[in-house]
Design a protein that fits this description.
One of its GO terms (molecular function) is DNA binding. It comes from Pseudarthrobacter psychrotolerans. This protein is α+β, with helices and mostly antiparallel strands and 725 residues long. Among the domains are: 9-149 and 167-258, 3-Layer(aba) Sandwich (Vanillyl-alcohol Oxidase, Chain A, domain 3), CATH 3.40.462; 383-505 and 696-725, no CATH class. Helices cover 40% and strands 18% of the residues. The strands form three sheets. The chain has an eleven-stranded mixed β-sheet. α15 crosses α16 and α16 (445-458) runs antiparallel to α17.
Length: 725
């Protein structure tokens, strides 16, 4: 059995993933800190190359493993040190490299050029070939003062025997020596190891590496190769041996020889991975209560998940990425997690996401599905005119706000707005109206009078004069006045929308999502419904949901279960009746609603909507982006460049998530595999239809029964107006 002391004394290897750009000053400070350590543990640096690229390893006794990792990550921000590496490939030949005058320094007139030369010599391998450059850092050497009379560095033995020690009289050489001796350093060993198929190839590879090191030589310096047992490179001893043939290397020289990819280069060094996308390790770990968003891709963190709790989701999640990058797959995974957790949720989307959701509904939630599909033969309906304890005036005003948000001030001018307000108020005052009656109210005089007589009598100051004016218009004048409004209301009579919105007493109320944790799925396929009809129905559903959310203000906060709201192509459907969307998002957080807003690119969003998302969607998940959007995303992500976002592969993301109420740093991840299909879609559709749907024939007949009223004539003495003036 291995003792604790023996275990702590074993050599362990960790892999260093350097950030880009890698500041040379920071790496020198790291080496200088190691060189100044009192306890002076042996540290082994390796640049290890295969056909797959170059890796940077650091080896030490196990007892120093954590301290080394901490030093690297703290002294070089952005560096990632992966956990213990096992299975290092072994070289078959090793050479020890010595400098003929180690008292003099190695130099480089172009650090980046020298680094590129060293890394180029290690790159370009094939098959199972291996190249290793190893630097063993042993005892620390403190800065030294030079003696007044410095011996000549290149004096030969014969000269020494004949004339004695000669003084170094070359000022530039003395200056070089002073520079090296005045810096911290190490007693160090440089080794080069290789594995290749034949001796000639091995010799070629070693010569290539040694040649690259010669770019660091100054006049009078030479490199010498010494054969050495390859075991010293493959399995180095854990402690510095007393008789190790070492040479002094300054901190600067170790930095040059290490091959570390320093500099702010635009083109990656040979053998290095692409500069973009940059891996970023998550700053927190997920727990059982977290909804999984992605699996971390940063080295040393690939077993870590990126996630967010339901409570933190109330600060809203913003997803952006074009078609084909995996956005819908991520939404599907999150929706599946919510269904498993028993949460209420709403999904409004225009593509195939809901079809995929139906295929993964857990068995325990199949009776909770409400499929509000306008294409269904027995569609589920909603009635935005249902008072539900509210006053007719409030319901009318809220619905007017939805239309105003949908069509804007340009689409609804002053006259159209006035007509629409009075129509909505008249219908809500009736008590049993549906929204499909709205266009008919303007075109069917008999039905209109049956609706407006009561409100005209009860409100002689506003509604009464308005409806008297309207009823006195000639058919031509009426058509002219209502034409701008009717082209927006006619979609309500489209068969698909009519069958959803003409149900005066639908079997489903959107408040059941909040009170009974129902799962409302609203597929809005523009190719079948038409874009205007799809946007109108989506806006009405979201507007009705917002009213239901607001009603939670009277509920104790601890009793407000989180309801998840997913809006894909959010710009089409988030038409909440208020001028301040930012206030809506801020308010919905306290009322227990978590909005997940998704879209393809930034220019889809109106300016006010984008500002609201930037201010209130505290969690952000961005996929691969086009150049313009990448610049906008990088402006929100310190430490990331636009190229990081444009270079993301499919299903890869950068995510900034809220954790315990605090916005955390960005992290890189890859979305997890979507859940397997486990449900019978036809069965779930039938369950929803049976619980909440109504036959289309019955819906149409109910509407006809109301409209087939006698056409009232003007009362005696009244005259029709011939114009709108």
């Amino acid at each position: 059995m291995i003792s604790q002391e023996s275990l702590l004394g074993q050599i362990v290897w960790q892999e260093i993933h350097w950030p880009h750009p890698l500041d040379a000053i920071r790496t020198l400070n790291l080496l200088r800190q190691w060189a100044a350590q009192v306890h002076a543990p042996q540290i082994i640096l390796e640049a290890r190359a295969t056909k797959n690229g170059i890796r940077f390893l650091v080896g030490s006794q196990r007892r120093h493993e954590a301290a080394l990792r901490r030093d690297i990550e703290q002294m070089v921000p952005g560096a990632i040190v992966a956990a213990e590496i096992t299975g290092r490939s072994h070289a078959s030949v090793s050479r020890r490299i010595m400098i003929n005058h180690p008292i003099r320094p190695l130099e480089s007139h172009d650090n980046e050029g020298s680094t590129r030369s060293i890394l180029a010599s290690l790159a370009g391998l094939r098959g199972n070939e291996l190249l290793v450059m190893q630097i063993v850092l042993g005892p620390r050497l403190a800065p030294q003062l030079l003696p007044e009379r410095l011996p000549r560095t290149d004096q030969g033995l014969s000269s020494l025997a004949l004339t004695g020690i000669q003084e170094e009289r070359r000022p530039h050489v003395a200056k070089e020596i002073q520079l090296k001796q005045s810096d911290h350093g190490f007693a160090a060993v440089i080794r080069v190891g290789v594995h290749a198929t034949d001796e000639a190839r091995r010799a070629t590879l070693i010569k290539r590496v040694v040649s690259s090191l010669r770019t660091l030589l100054t006049p009078g310096l030479r490199l010498r190769e010494h054969r050495e047992k390859v075991q010293k490179l493959n399995t180095p001893v854990s402690e510095w041996a007393y008789f190790t043939p070492a040479q002094r290397l300054s901190v600067a020289e170790v930095g040059l020889l290490s091959g570390w990819p320093v500099g702010a280069i635009d083109v990656p060094y040979p053998g290095m991975p692409p500069i973009h996308p940059r891996p970023i390790r998550p700053s927190f770990t997920t727990g059982d209560k977290h909804r999984v968003v992605a699996q971390a891709t940063a080295p040393g963190a690939t077993d870590t998940m990126l996630g967010i709790t339901a409570d933190d989701s109330r600060r809203h999640i913003w997803l952006m990425g074009p078609t084909g990058v995996g956005k819908s797959s991520l939404l599907l995974s999150m929706i599946h997690d919510d269904m498993l957790a028993g949460r209420g949720l709403v999904v409004v989307e225009p593509k195939d996401l809901i079809r995929d959701v139906l295929a993964v509904v857990p068995a325990s939630r199949r009776d909770d599905i409400v499929l509000l599909d306008p294409l269904d033969s027995e569609p589920v309906g909603i009635n935005p005119l249902d008072l539900h304890g509210r006053s007719p005036a409030l319901v009318a005003d809220q619905l007017f706000g939805t239309f105003k948000a949908l069509y804007g001030a340009d689409g609804l001018g002053p006259r159209s707005s006035d007509i629409l307000r009075h129509c909505l108020l008249a219908l809500t005052s009736r008590g049993d109206a549906s929204l499909a009656m709205l266009p008919v109210l303007l075109t069917n005089p008999g039905f209109r009078r049956s609706v407006t007589q009561r409100i005209a009598r009860s409100d002689p100051f506003s509604a009464g004069p308005f409806w008297r004016w309207f009823d006195q218009l000639t058919p031509e004048a009426s058509a002219q006045v209502t034409a701008p409004l009717m082209n927006k209301l006619r979609p309500l009579l489209d068969p698909h929308l009519r069958h959803v919105l003409a149900q005066r007493n639908p079997r489903f109320n959107i408040r059941q999502v909040l009170t009974q944790r129902k799962i409302l799925l609203v597929p809005l396929q523009k190719g079948v419904l038409g874009p205007e009809a799809a946007e109108l129905l989506g806006a009405l559903v979201v507007g009705e949901l917002w009213q239901a959310i607001q009603e939670r203000a009277g509920i104790d906060p601890k009793d407000r279960d989180t309801v998840m709201v997913y809006l894909d192509e959010v710009q089409d459907y988030l038409r909440i009746p208020t001028s301040d969307l930012a206030d809506v998002l801020a308010t919905s957080r306290s009322l227990g609603a978590a909005f997940h807003v998704a879209h393809q690119y930034m220019d889809q969003l109106p300016i006010a909507m984008r500002s609201a998302f930037e201010a209130n969607c505290r969690s952000r998940i961005f996929f691969q982006l086009a150049a313009k959007d990448a610049r906008a995303a990088a402006a929100m992500a310190p430490g990331l460049d636009p190229e990081d976002f444009t270079s993301l592969p499919a299903r890869n993301v950068y995510a900034q998530l809220v954790n315990q109420g605090t916005v955390t740093d960005w992290a890189s991840g890859k979305t997890i595999t979507t859940p397997k299909k486990s449900a019978n879609m036809s069965d779930i559709q039938a369950r929803s239809r049976g619980q909440y749907g109504q036959a289309t024939d019955a819906i149409d007949q109910g509407l006809l029964d109301i409209f087939e009223l006698p056409q009232d004539r003007p009362e005696s003495g009244e005259r029709r107006r011939r114009s709108t003036s």
